[in-house]
Amino acid sequence: MTDFLDEKRQEIQDRLAELRPLIDEYQRLEAAASALEGVGGAAPATRATAAAPARRGPGRPKGSGRKPGRPAGSGRKPGRPAGSGRGPGRPPGSGRGAASTTAAATATATKAPARRGRPPGRRKGSGTRSAQALSIVTGQPGVTIPELAARMGIKKNYLYRVLPSLEQEGKVKKQGRGWHPK
Length: 182
What we know:
Largest sheet: 2 strands, antiparallel
Strand content: under 5%
Number of strands: 2
């Protein structure tokens, strides 16, 4: 009896190993099809990809990337001697000697405050990944975040933000560890 069970276990393991690449490919194709649902009819070759903006370093605030017209690696304005100006992360007008000038203080005081948060026109959780997660939850009620992440081919931490926002919108509900459509 033990030999029979061992043989069947081995047959099952062999078949699972044989099918795994097909399942992975299916999930990648499903994720790609879902991601393309929201994309317009323009061909990828016609999109502007020539001049992508320079990326800022990790942990750097918005607007701290390389400025146009400056060579890469140039941290200070052209024509300025080393050691002058403000330090990294300091607001305009906070450089050496700049605080005493009234022009710098006036310019800083009259600036409108920078807008923070996401740009208008797109609400939280309305992206393609959100729609994809919602369709998987609808098709497989009780699915967990790790299962969703595996099916979508993304990291779990993203879904820990997306699903609660879908729950706030009344589209899904959590029961135990699983997520269900409302």
